[in-house]
Amino acid sequence: MLITTAPKNCLTCNKLIRGRTDKKFCDDYCRNTYNNQQNAAGNNTIRNINYALRKNRRILESLLPEHEKMIKVNVEKLSQEGFVFKYYTHAYCNSRGRFYYFCYDHGYLVLEKNWYLIVKSSIRLKL
Ligand SMILES: [Zn+2]
Question: Which domain holds residue 72?
């Protein structure tokens, strides 16, 4: 039986693959190398996001004075500290439909015009 499909190259070393046309790698070594690289890339992404989340939490914690339940800060203050808004661990919607975004046990509520209310999670918020 003659199968005429375009020749394929190994995803790792780019050599032409012989044999079955559904193969993606020339051998086990190339397949393992490829999978290890994919895992390393995924682990890097996870590490970077975890770092950003912990940093966000540290920033919120540092801005909230001890023994205070909340404090109002503006966006410049958060940005200066290196806060990354796209990363948060979870969100909480209160009874008035307002969203709090949390990085672990510290969070913020978006107020009007570039102001944020930083809070520490409590049992009251039922997180
Ligand atoms: Zn190969």
Answer: 28-125
Residue 120 maps to a domain: yes
Cα(21) to centroid(ligand 1), Å: 14
Is 14 a member of any domain?
A: no
How many structural domains are present in the chain?
1
What is residue 94's predicted lDDT score, i.e. its pLDDT? 87
Q: In Å, how far are 7, 29, 118 from 57, measured between CA atoms?
A: 51, 42, 11
Rounded distance from Cα 123 to ligand 1 centre (Å): 56
Domain-embedded: residue 15: no
Identify residues whose C-beta is under 5 A from ligand 1, the ion.
10, 12-13, 26, 30
pTM of this prediction?
A: 0.73
Neighbour tally for 56: CB within 10 Å? 27
91, pLDDT greater than 80? yes
